[in-house]
Write a sequence for this structure.
């Protein structure tokens, strides 16, 4: 007769009860279900009420309008667009314009932020005061005001197209923006592109090898002359062999405006400038706080190892500071993206301007258009957050925290 | 502006516009003691605050006339300045009772936006303004031009149509408000500013040197401007419509702000009907019998309002043209009061 070992009583039900109802048990679960049901009922009532009211007033509803012809033009579009395209395409045009200005704005804001923060922490009196003055001036003036300043003040200072400031008769600066020659592909482009690709891969491999040598054997290898040779010398050689990879279509003034060439419109420049300068000032303070949160001893330890100030900052201080910098930096990136919706004031065709503005007005479908727009901003923001969180997670792992 | 439309939209979504659903605008207005009137953010001649902060203009006078008919007091109006793109949402959500904001009467605005146009206060058309220094004679010379325009308007659509049908290229730069568009034109960002012709003349007054700018002769569209009300409230629609018709009829009958008391005593049958000494038209509209004399005392007849705000008696000085009475060569025509 074998003896069955006594099993402990199953805790599964108890655990489930705790997971669903918390300390209050099944009663808590019921309360939660009731709460969710009440929320769902309120949401349903709101939607239903709005729908019947709209119907009573005979206001069009639904998303069918997205396939209707828009009938208006947009002055900056990354994809081909004309007035005979649909509202759906207007949406894509606006979205791409918002993303364009956000990505470029985030890049410049980050660069400005780091440079100004380092300037502010610099032992150089003039540099640190200038940086401090910049931060205080820029972050204390309203953003819309700064946008209008860059737009109207800079526009007023620039000449009309006929009296453009020209450089080599191919670059023209006027109040219509900066017109530059458009690159056109020549037959030499293909080998050139391959060579550049090879050079980049080789340079990256070399960098990897040099790091391994440094970390595993303590040998410092100077690779930058070789990298320079790879990245500039090789492509140059190809150009000599195969001819120029690209030609240029030079802009010519015809009637009112330039024909041919590519144009950087002043609305885009003013918006990017205002957004990156403004956000850059906030990022500068965040970076400064991050760097100052790293103990002084770290910098001193770096110096005692013989590292220069720059190397000590780059290799020791900034990686540690990044842990503090990253969360508020993410918020600034999100702010910049959302602030880009002020673009309508200076005529830049972003999502809010062409979709939540013009499209809303022409179709009158406020609820649908604003719901889509809010959803898109939410999606952009969550994506940005996710990327930054991933970066933060990797950073934390590489610094050894769990 | 985004925030404003968001508020209106939330109001719509939450179904706060109960007055719209129950079609009781007149009662709501009487209870509130004010007519809520959507106007522009400042278009001289049509709706703009004067140096004392009082709203004046042709569109403003329509709202004042409605207030006079209801309350016998043209000051009982709350003016809500709206950008072109917020205006319809404000009307839909019940924020305003009348949209009197140089708004073009189109089919889709009645069928899709849930509104009704109560008549035409001004027959307009779209035109172009350029600097005189460009020495241009026609809009057909505008190929490759940069054009400043206010977003969310029929203007924006006509512009696209006109350039497309004439095989011309252009660069549109759309601004959220009219003022921003005018400012960018003045700063030289655009070669051309486009708007309704009446608006061009009014905006020209805002420029530093109005004399340096000219309006090109082409009128590229029909823009009948008029007051708009919410759909589904016939009583309110009738009141606004007949207030405007009343003003036009008064001009036809020769009733002016000065002679209104005298005319009210007349025993001509048509005047007796207008002034409510015969019949009961005012009360059938939901106001009092003497509604017409209240309106005329407050704002004058249509011709007087026109002259004072945009016509010969104003700084803008636009000729009556199409807006002359039908009997004098124009197309302003109102159905009879009987």
């Amino acid at each position: 007769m074998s003896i069955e070992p006594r099993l402990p009583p199953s805790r599964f039900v108890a655990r489930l009860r705790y997971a669903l109802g918390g300390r209050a048990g099944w009663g808590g679960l019921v309360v939660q279900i009731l709460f969710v049901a009440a929320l769902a009922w309120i949401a349903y009532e709101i939607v239903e009420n709005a729908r019947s009211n709209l119907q009573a007033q005979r206001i069009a509803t639904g998303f069918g309008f997205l396939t209707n012809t828009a009938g208006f033009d947009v002055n900056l579009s990354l994809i081909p667009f004309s007035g005979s395209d649909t509202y759906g395409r207007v949406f894509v045009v606006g979205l791409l314009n918002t993303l364009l200005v956000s990505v470029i704005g985030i890049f410049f804001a980050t660069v400005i932020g780091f440079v100004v923060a380092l300037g502010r922490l610099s032992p150089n009196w003039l540099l640190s005061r200038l940086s401090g003055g910049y931060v205080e001036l820029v972050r204390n003036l309203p953003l819309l005001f700064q946008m209008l300043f860059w737009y109207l003040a800079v526009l007023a200072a620039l000449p009309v197209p006929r009296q453009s400031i020209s450089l080599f008769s191919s670059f023209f600066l006027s109040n219509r923006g900066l017109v530059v020659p458009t690159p056109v592909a020549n037959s030499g482009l293909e080998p050139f592109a391959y060579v550049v690709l090879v050079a980049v891969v080789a340079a990256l491999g070399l960098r990897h090898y040099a790091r391994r040598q440094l970390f595993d054997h303590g040998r410092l290898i100077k690779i930058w002359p070789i990298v320079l040779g790879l990245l500039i010398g090789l492509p140059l050689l190809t150009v000599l062999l195969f001819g120029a990879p690209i030609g240029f279509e030079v802009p010519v003034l015809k009637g009112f405006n330039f024909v041919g060439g590519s144009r950087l419109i002043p609305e885009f420049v003013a918006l990017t400038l205002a957004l990156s300068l403004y956000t850059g000032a906030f990022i500068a303070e965040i970076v400064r706080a991050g760097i100052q949160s790293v103990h002084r001893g770290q910098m001193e330890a770096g110096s005692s190892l013989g590292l220069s100030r720059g190397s000590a900052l780059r290799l020791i201080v900034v990686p540690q500071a990044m842990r503090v910098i990253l969360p508020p930096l993410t918020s600034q990136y999100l702010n910049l993206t959302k602030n880009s919706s002020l673009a309508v004031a200076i005529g830049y065709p972003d999502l809010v301007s062409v979709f939540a503005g013009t499209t809303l007005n022409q179709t009158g479908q406020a609820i649908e258009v604003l719901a889509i727009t809010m959803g898109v901003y939410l999606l952009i923001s969550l994506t940005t957050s996710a990327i930054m969180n991933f970066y933060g997670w990797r950073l934390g792992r590489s610094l050894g925290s769990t | 502006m985004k925030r404003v439309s968001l508020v209106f939209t939330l109001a719509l979504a939450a179904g706060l516009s109960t007055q719209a659903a129950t079609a009781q605008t007149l009662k709501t207005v009487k209870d509130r003691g004010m007519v809520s009137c959507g106007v522009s953010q400042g278009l001289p001649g049509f709706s703009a605050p004067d140096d004392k902060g009082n709203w004046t203009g042709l569109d403003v006078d329509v709202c004042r006339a409605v207030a006079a008919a209801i309350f016998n007091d043209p000051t009982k109006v709350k003016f809500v300045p709206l950008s072109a793109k917020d205006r319809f949402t404000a009307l839909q959500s019940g924020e305003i009772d009348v949209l009197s904001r140089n708004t073009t009467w189109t089919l889709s605005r009645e069928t899709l936006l849930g509104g009704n146009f109560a008549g035409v206060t001004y027959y307009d058309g779209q035109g172009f303004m350029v600097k005189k220094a460009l020495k241009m004679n026609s809009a057909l010379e505008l190929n490759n031009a940069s054009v400043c325009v206010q977003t969310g308007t029929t203007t924006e659509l006509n512009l696209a149509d006109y350039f497309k049908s004439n095989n011309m290229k252009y660069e549109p730069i759309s601004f959220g408000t009219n003022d921003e568009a005018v400012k960018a034109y003045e700063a030289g960002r655009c070669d051309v500013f486009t708007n309704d012709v009446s608006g061009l003349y009014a905006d020209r007054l805002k420029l530093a040197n109005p004399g340096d700018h000219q309006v090109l002769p082409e009128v590229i569209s029909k823009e009948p401007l008029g007051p708009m009300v919410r759909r589904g409230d016939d009583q309110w629609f009738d009141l606004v419509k007949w207030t405007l018709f009343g003003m036009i009829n008064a001009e036809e009958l020769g009733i002016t702000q000065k002679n209104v008391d005298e005319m009210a005593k007349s025993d001509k049958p048509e005047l007796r009907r207008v002034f409510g000494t015969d019949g009961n038209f005012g009360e059938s509209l939901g106001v009092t019998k003497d509604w017409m004399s209240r309106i005329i005392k407050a704002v004058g007849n249509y011709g007087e309002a026109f002259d004072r705000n945009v016509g010969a008696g104003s700084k803008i000085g636009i000729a009556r043209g199409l807006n002359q009475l039908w009997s004098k060569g124009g197309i302003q025509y109102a159905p009879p009061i009987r």
Chain B has two domains: 2-123+225-320, 126-221. The first helix of chain B runs from residue 2 to 13. The radius of gyration of chain B is 20 Å. Chain B touches chain A through 57 residues (CB under 8 Å).
